[in-house]
Amino acid sequence: MRVGLNVANFAAPGGPARLAEHLAQVARRAEEAGFESLWVWDHFFWDQTPIGPGVTDREMIEAYTTLGFLAGVTRTIKLGTLVASATYRHPGVLVKQVTTLDVLSGGRAIFGIGAGWFEEEHRALGIPFPTTKERFERLEETVQIALLMWGDEGRYDRAKPFLGKHYRLERALNVPQALRRPHPPILIGGSGEQKTLRLVAQYADACNLNGRFPADQLAHKLGVLRSHCERLGRSYDAIEKTLYGRLHVTQTGHSGTMSTTQAIAYCRTLADLGFDTLVLVDDTFDIYDPAALDLWAKLIPAIHQIPTAGR
């Protein structure tokens, strides 16, 4: 089983003037600790959910600028959004951003994408917030455009158009092309059974479910994904199953935290359900405390030894 790290806390010691310094340290420490992937949210405001209701004025920075910076201070760790909102950028621009990240990182980009949900964030910044139905239509067209652009031959006179319901591209030209072939991995985030998991089965290389679901519900969600795959003729095993987990782990599990032994047992449970990757989000512990990632550096080798069910 693999482990990724999602950095969501940008309230670094010393404030914005020292944020770049601290983020670089976190990224390098995560790479050295054995985290396979490094993720950021695609938000402009901080939302307290599930910690509490409402939007706060806590620090939040733009995703792809951040990932470009992190690419420059790391060498091997994969980089992605968990997940980008299909409503925030025109698909052609978004695919160009992901392609640029892939080229400049040496083929380490992951295209994490979702339909978008944060209505207050949209309205506050003047971004249109379509209906749920339209957001999912835009998500599907965005993925289709990504696949079209990543299949582009790099010739202006051969670049193909895209004529969708919401987007029209006259030439889906993409030069330079992404280094990762046939394209950067596509991860579609969300757990909706009728739309999201169907899109995963049809287009994606990975899914992402929320660790707030109990084990029986997670098993049910994966069963739904398997059914979609069977109906569409897609290999269920070809899709990486990732889970978004809020784990505050300490050596002994004091004060309501999870002990290292409990963390290993939790990862075994996930693997038995069929998950390949746990993505640890930092909003329950201090990412800027070196001891936090040092502890995970000791855990990750043991987690890597846990086989995923069916693999």
TrEMBL record:
The family database entries (SUPFAM superfamilies) matched by this protein are listed as: Bacterial luciferase-like (SSF51679)
- The protein here is known as LLM class F420-dependent oxidoreductase
PANTHER family associated with the record: ALKANESULFONATE MONOOXYGENASE, CONSERVED PROTEIN
Q: Name one GO molecular function term.
A: alkanesulfonate monooxygenase activity
To which species is this protein native?
Candidatus Segetimicrobium genomatis
Which top-rank group of organisms is this from? Bacteria
Biological process terms in GO annotation: alkanesulfonate catabolic process
Keywords of this entry: Flavoprotein, FMN, Monooxygenase, Oxidoreductase
Give start and end of each Luciferase-like domain: 2-252
Pfam families, per database record:
Bac_luciferase (PF00296)
Q: Which InterPro entries match?
A: F420_OxRdatse_Rv1855c_pred, Luciferase-like_dom, Luciferase-like_sf, SsuD_RutA_monooxygenase
